[in-house]
Write a structure and sequence with these properties.
The chain is an alpha+beta fold and about 140 residues long. It contains two helices and four strands; from the N terminus they run E-E-E-E-H-H. Strands 1-2-3-4 form a four-stranded antiparallel β-sheet, with helices on one face. It is flat and about 70 Å long.
């Protein structure tokens, strides 16, 4: 089993991970996890742990993990938004078919404010994208 283990383990935390080097080459044939670094995924900062000096291999593995982790988080973020769209559709169906007057009294104001905020932001962002595209198109025509 120990030969199938990776050389590194990343314990995910909210802003990144703790990085451990896996060691199975010891007399007791135990799995030792030695922390070698802390990674902040938001700013990409890597700090070595204690007196450990990160090797080029360590840095390459950590940088690869950061890139992979950012891709996973971006995919999850889009998936979460698409799930929110599904949930809005399910909420609409619930309002239409099953919600009581009391249920609607509980959720209406919060939903309306959240939807108004979302709509305003989406409209503003779409207008900005359209204006940028027009400016870019005009710049290309002038060249």
């Amino acid at each position: 089993m120990s030969s199938d283990l990776p050389d590194y383990y990343f314990r995910v935390r909210e802003n990144g991970a703790l990085v451990f080097r896996i060691d199975t080459e010891n007399r007791q044939r135990r799995i030792d996890m030695n922390q070698i670094a802390t990674v902040n995924i938001r700013n990409g900062e890597t700090k070595s742990h204690g007196d450990h000096v990160l090797s080029d291999e360590d840095r390459a593995v950590i940088e690869g993990w950061i890139a992979d982790r950012r891709a996973v988080l971006a995919e999850r973020e889009i998936d979460d938004i698409l799930r929110a769209v599904d949930h809005l559709n399910l909420t609409t169906q619930w309002v239409q078919s099953r919600a009581s007057d009391h249920d609607l009294d509980v959720v209406t104001d919060a939903l309306l404010l959240a939807m108004h905020d979302l709509r305003s932001t989406l409209v503003r962002k779409k207008a900005e994208r359209i204006l940028r595209a027009q400016d870019h198109s005009e710049d290309r025509q002038e060249d």
